[in-house]
Q: What sequence folds into this?
């Protein structure tokens, strides 16, 4: 699971903008600013709505497309944090990105005498 320790939901840090429309339709971006050390950086998610999609869906359809894009961007950030082993914290005014805290190594426990113990191998942890 992604390590996110922010005072507000992740989506509250997103900035939304509409870019100049082109022949393919309306274009949008979602920006997520964050600090990595003293440097301000950002992630962006771009999405587009064709004229036909806009005509069929109307305002309700546009709102649904925006919700879908926001959800996909949030999931992308969570996967990025997991794969890079980083975490987000603080969030005042922008989240801070840092290396995730390492968990403590497992402690070996000797089974009690007379108690049968079964061990299972977790293949995912040995990949």
A:
């Amino acid at each position: 699971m992604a390590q996110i320790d922010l005072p507000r939901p992740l989506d509250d840090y997103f900035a939304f903008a509409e870019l100049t429309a082109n022949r393919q339709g309306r274009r949008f971006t979602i920006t997520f600013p964050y600090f990595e050390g003293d440097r301000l950086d950002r992630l962006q998610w771009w999405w587009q709505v064709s004229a036909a999609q806009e005509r069929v869906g109307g305002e309700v359809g546009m709102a649904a497309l925006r919700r879908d894009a926001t959800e996909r961007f949030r999931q992308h950030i969570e996967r990025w944090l997991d794969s890079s082993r980083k975490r987000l914290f603080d969030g005042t005014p922008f989240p801070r990105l840092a290396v995730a805290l390492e968990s403590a190594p497992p402690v070996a426990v000797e089974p009690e005498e007379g108690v049968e113990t079964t061990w299972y191998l977790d293949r995912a942890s040995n990949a």
About this structure: The helical segments are 51-84. Residues 120-127 have pLDDT under 50 and may be disordered. The beta strands are 3-5, 15-22, 25-36, 39-49, 86-90, 95-99.
